[in-house]
């Protein structure tokens, strides 16, 4: 039976005083940390975890409760991409390297587990139910019911720090390399001393795309108390026939007691055994690196040497509070603030740091060691994040966004191509389109220009024009010749992929205009509207074509929802994609027969249940009514309704997969009354904010003003905007106009 979980929030701060051993919960929380509830998104396939991590950190010390038949959601019995699901009850350890809000499983490795009594190495036997969970930014704790052991964890950028509070008697700390979310196998372990273990774990099976690009993850574990005994275990394969006669360990677990040589294998682990005369805590620090064990050891030393658990937590929580404080909201309910700041917290997880403290990181593909002066970011889920997350970073954290763009350009230098879905210096090529260029252009147009824009332009146009061996734009030859893709070039997503190429071409045109490359601007702008060739007036929707240009028949525009396969669209249907041409909304209005026809068709998306809040292609749809004079109220009502229905201060408080912060970014924008309606066009659609006042600190390195204030006055629908001292009845505002004025007043009636 599962004990009650503690959802950490403002109303629960007093629970902190109940801690009896660590004292960490007694530490006064910084102003905004109480509004972060890391349990949001741990149900309803949000794929987040409540684990302890630092902003943009490599390390995420997460409870691992997705292994074992005792759990409702088990990693090997279904598609599951998270180390933790709220409904589950059985925990088999704490994983140290995890992904947040992704759609495919990988990582979820380097599992530690404290136990008591006899040494047991089978996770289904040593696993435990748990209770009294507490989670907040940079901190997680729980109690293991089977052992009466309390666990608490915090983290720096590259090091996880855990305290295990053992009762009197025999105890164990296990490191299991055989268990994880990755489908890759293999690793090595070596007990260096009674206080140190080092090893390697092979990972890299994200979406099962490129088996040849698996890679090693290095780690070092340090224990603050020497063990009475240590060793390694290995689960041996079962052999039959003559071969088995001379293998007394055949199919059994081999224990290497007090063994100090390296062991290589698939199902291997290491242990530290203790015999405590009184209740005792053991502190475990685990640092990782994608370069070497030596770098992992240096990461541990540089980030945590001489620091207590409480000091590490204090430093990390201060970093979290500093970043969260870049936006300060007033008004709204306590729950409103919790879902808002938790969303902001989720946008600060990925992209995350790849380089070690010395600047070293692995080169794309070859994994030879390179060095960066700034931060080399990784986990670029760009099909998702180009739509809103990176523009949010440009507004609130422009220095981070600049480093992300520079990381993308480094990837181009190393591989010859911009990233699509890059993970730890591998290109997974997950999803479709050519999204990096959209982000780069958008960043530049928002005034973040401290990167090599000519190199960026070169990279963008390469993927837009290279006909052969183009990993970013499969089918590009047909796209250039016809203006669209047919079922001959792609069996999945001919229409939606055309649209994605269109959006990137529009981004190139926008950047070309800014760089005064007038011929290029005209060329790419014309290419950006080629989706029009796929508009079928019979349905007033987009429809795939065959190689002979005939319409695919039969055609059901609803087919494709909920991951159904269809010929025209990736992860969606015609209803969910047709309006995804925000860069040419006026053109689509004309195609549909005018504003009334467009409005009716757009409204039908919502009325017929075709809108999917968890699906990226249509998440901007509610804001499209702003293009229809007199119908802007529909945007305001629909956005308010979606926030209320899909985002809550509960574990199921995300509408589905967070997609590395994309859903959270949608929420942040929507709650402050703005949305970047057209990627690579620095314009916001305006809606009614949830809060009465929003103050955004602006980075003086990129903006002339030091803050931006958004205020709401009155109730009802928007009647007027005041931008600086200027009155406007438009429902759009330019990014530069907004940050230069540093004031937006939204008057309602």
Walk me through the structure.
- This protein is α+β, with helices and mostly antiparallel strands.
- It has two domains: 10-322, Beta-galactosidase, Chain A, domain 5 (Distorted Sandwich); 326-748, 2-Layer Sandwich (GH92 mannosidase fold), CATH 3.30.2080.
- It is 26% helix and 23% strand.
- The protein has 18 helices and 35 strands.
- The protein has a ten-stranded antiparallel beta sheet. A six-stranded mixed beta sheet has the order 18-30-31-35-32-33. A five-stranded antiparallel beta sheet has the order 4-9-16-13-14, with no helix packed on it.
- Strand 10 and strand 11 form a beta hairpin.
- The longest helix is centred in the last third of the chain and has 21 residues, at 494-514.
How much of the residues is beta strand, in percent? 15-25%
Indicate the mean pLDDT: 94
Rounded to the nearest angstrom, the radius of gyration is 26 Å
Instruction: For the record, give the distance between the C-alpha atoms at the N and C termini, rounded to a whole number.
Output: 52 Å
The helix/strand class is: alpha+beta
* Biggest β-sheet description: 10 strands, antiparallel
CATH topology of the largest domain: GH92 mannosidase fold
Shape: globular
Strand order in the sheet with the most strands: 2-5-6-7-8-17-12-11-10-15
Number of strands: 35
What is the CATH class of the largest domain?
A: Alpha Beta
Number of helices: 18
Low-confidence stretches: 1-30
Portion in helices: 25-40%
Domain tally: 2
* CATH architecture classification of the largest domain: 2-Layer Sandwich
CATH superfamily of the largest domain: GH92 mannosidase domain
